[in-house]
User: What shape does this take?
Amino acid sequence: MLSELAGRLLAAGQILLGLPLLEQAAAREGTALRDVRLAIDHLCRGEARARASGETTFAEFAERVISGKLAEQYPDHVKAIRRPDLYRGTSTGRWVPLAFATGNRLPAESRELTRTLREVWTTGA
Assistant: This one.
């Protein structure tokens, strides 16, 4: 199975990106193996690409905002969040939508939605 996956990656010209996936495939079975095979399929079809250096995911951006690192880096443009604990999910580590951080700058309807969502996220109701 590994040689078949390696052959597909070679044929698609994706062996460098696919090598870590091959290593994962060697150590997995069942559903986890299926997920790695799907990732390799996407890579071979050209549906996945390596993240360019300097690109930031939303989760990474949210972490920089909530942690205050973005405010430290750009103090003239980004205001530090006073209570970052309000923006983190309580038990699951999920992020509260970043719009909460700028709720006072949103139109009235959005502010009301933001308040409602904040209540749901903080109370779990």
The chain is about 55% helix and 0% strand.
